[in-house]
Amino acid sequence: MSDPARAYTTHPPAGERRALAVEMDILQKYNALAAATRDYCQERGILSINLLSSPGSGKTELLARTIPRLQAHCPVAVIEGDQHTELDTLRIRAAGAPSVQINTGRACHLDAGRVQEALHLLLPAPGSVLFIENIGNLVCPTAFDLGESRRVVLLSVCEGDDKPLKYAEAFASADLLLITKTSLLPHVRFDTAACIAQARSVCRDVPVLLLDAISGEGMTPWLSWLLQQRAACMPALQPAAVTPLRGAQP
Amino acid sequence: MHEVAVCRTLLQMCEQLAREQGAASICCVEIELGALAPLDSEALRFAFEVMRQDTLAAAAALHITRVAAHGSCAHCGSSTLMTQRYSPCPHCGSAPLLLGDGDQLRLRRIEIVDGPAPPLLLQDGCGP
Questions:
Q1: Which of B10, B21, B56 is opposite residue A26, by nearest beta carbon?
Q2: For residues B19 and B114, what is the distance between their CA atoms, to the nearest angstrom?
Q3: Could you read off the pLDDT of A9-29 as tens digits, one per residue?
Q4: DSSP one-letter string for A104-141
Q5: What DSSP state is assigned to residue A80?
Q6: What pLDDT score was predicted for residue A2?
Q7: Tens digit of each residue's pLDDT (9 = 90 or more) over A88-113
Q8: How far does B67 lie from chain A, in Å, by closest CA?
Q9: How far is the C-alpha of B103 from the C-alpha of A182, rounded, in Å?
């Protein structure tokens, strides 16, 4: 065939038509990859944390300040997600943790396939805490299960206290809400109680922590929460017969 | 936008099914989209129109069936039709409602035309 592209036509060819019943979830391949990641981490006692927020809420700074504190207790590894550049993964490595950068280009969220690819490269040690810093975006990442153990949503005091209702899907998916940059509270209009009430109207009883990564305020409760969650995710480590990482599926 | 990524996955599923059946082309794709699925149906339709080119679905019609969302209230136990994901219960005002169904995104059926298929052009990994 001289020009393969011409084989596809907008005019349907004559031929017998047949209907195929399918009944499949369109996102099932991603859900299967997420389940594989979840199994991989559970078998190795790895706590995986998906960090969601708008751009500039302080995810990377929080990780950079958390890593030295957390490494006193366990290994830490980080998967960084951005549309472009390796700036964040370089900051994480400077903070002392291994890190892999995913650049999504025009895509607006990380997906389970890309996370699997990053896991192939990173191979976090058993008993690690694995952070997955998602693309800065309070809309699209919400719908995509990465296979994480816990999902943490960040909101800085500079962003307004009405975001939990405006971006309800994101806040409803949270296992923990972190209100960040609290040292700026004297300089911004932010009703903390109202914000927490909004968040709990879409995510019943969601735990909330207030912190400032740069000043250190609130970092101790954050570390405590991480270590509690890690303890809850630590089964007796399985012997050699553990689920191998699957390659990213086509 | 992720309607493009979802549409890519949809077309890959359709192509794989059609090629397994020895089809020359796909003439119809029927999907079910819940009222509270995290996708815009018009954006999905636009993405399909663009991305079906150079696939077995180049001439395919896309049929989208919208499905209403239903939920229940953990506080008063009442069931309700949901038009927004995080509205309070219309009976007792408690929030959030528990979504029962209505966020699905399913490929229901495809219609294929038998015959020799052109070579595969839709490449994996070439994302939007």
A1: B10
A2: 10
A3: 555 556 789 999 999 999 888
A4: -TT--S--HHHHHHHHHHH-PPTT-EEEEE--S-SSGG
A5: E
A6: 42
A7: 999 999 999 999 999 888 778 898 99
A8: 14
A9: 36
Q: Where do runs of H (alpha helix) occur along chain A?
A: 28-43, 59-70, 87-95, 112-122, 163-166, 168-172, 192-202, 219-232
**CA torsion sign, A212 to A78 to A115 to A37?**
negative
Check CB contact of B26 with chain A, cutoff 8 Å. no
How many alpha carbons fall within 13 Å on the CB side of residue A208? Answer: 21
Give the integer Cα–Cα distance in Å for B72 and A191: 31
Residue B35 contacts residue B64 (beta carbons within 8 Å): no
Q: Is B59 on the interface with A (CB under 8 A)?
A: yes
Under DSSP, the state recorded for A57 is S
Q: What is the pLDDT of residues A18-75, one digit of tens each?
A: 999 999 999 888 899 999 999 999 999 999 999 999 999 999 999 999 999 999 999 9
Q: What tens digit of pLDDT does each residue of A172-215 get?
A: 999 999 999 999 999 999 999 999 999 999 998 999 999 999 99
